[in-house]
Specification:
eight-stranded mixed barrel; disordered C terminus; 236 residues; globular; 9 strands
Length: 236
């Protein structure tokens, strides 16, 4: 596992670390997933969750204010309460607080099996877990997702963020998304922030949770400390 911080630039703190699966030589998540067959999805998903929690705990994340965000494979979840047991057992063994867990769902996967996903999100919410829609606006975007799933967080896809400091169209879209999420009490995160100018433009729109190379690259089996941009908005 590699970990990348999701930062709060207003508080100059790390909101959460996202756990990102990597191969033994640092291979990307996409390359690893391509080698996983349908019959192996459940075992792979469970192994990723356990490894993320155990590694995060060994790095001391359980005692920090920051949370842990884990991507999961909805197609590997046949029944939410049954499939969460291994996760809970790993957290108990590692003494990692389950209240610090966030589960990320890719937007494309939501559309592939909406009823199944709606059940998972509802069950996770009932168990006290937070959920996030990842890569929102990546090309599959459907505003009905927000009404149907009501996640705790929405992570805006990096394609919406790229060049937002010079692109009025992107600023308008992201600004309206942020306003809509605020009205629905959904926390918004900007992904893929690569420049200080992009960070400043997002801050001007009231978005303070960000993730991207300008702050820190993923750290293999480590919790990277973020670099902060020169300008940050005042804490609200």
């Amino acid at each position: 596992m590699a970990f990348q911080p999701i930062v709060d630039i207003a508080a100059r703190s790390v909101f959460a670390y996202e756990a990102l699966v990597r191969g033994p030589a640092g291979e990307s998540a996409a390359s690893i997933l391509r080698s996983v067959g349908k019959a192996e999805l459940y075992t792979f998903d469970q192994a990723c969750r356990v490894t993320a929690i155990e590694t995060a705990a060994s790095l001391g994340l359980g005692g920090m204010a920051s949370d842990l965000s884990i991507n999961f494979l909805p197609n590997a979840v046949y029944e939410p309460r049954a499939c969460i047991r291994t996760t809970l057992q790993a957290a108990a063994r590692s003494r990692f607080p389950t209240g610090k867990l966030i589960f990320e769902i890719n937007e494309g996967e939501l559309l592939a099996a909406p009823d199944h996903l709606a059940n998972i999100v509802a069950e996770y919410a009932a168990m006290g877990f937070r959920t996030a829609i990842d890569d929102f606006g990546s090309g599959y975007s459907n505003l009905n997702l927000l009404a149907k799933f009501r996640p705790d967080l929405v992570k805006l896809d990096m394609e919406l963020i790229r060049g937002i400091d010079t692109d009025k169209g992107r600023r308008s879209i992201v600004g309206h998304c942020a306003a809509m999420c605020r009205e629905m009490a959904i926390t918004i995160v900007a992904e893929g922030v690569e420049t200080r100018d992009e960070s400043a433009a997002l801050a001007d729109l009231g978005i303070t949770l960000m993730q991207g190379y300008v702050f820190a690259r993923p750290g293999f089996r480590s919790l990277p400390a973020p670099d902060w941009p020169d300008r940050a908005p005042p804490a609200s």
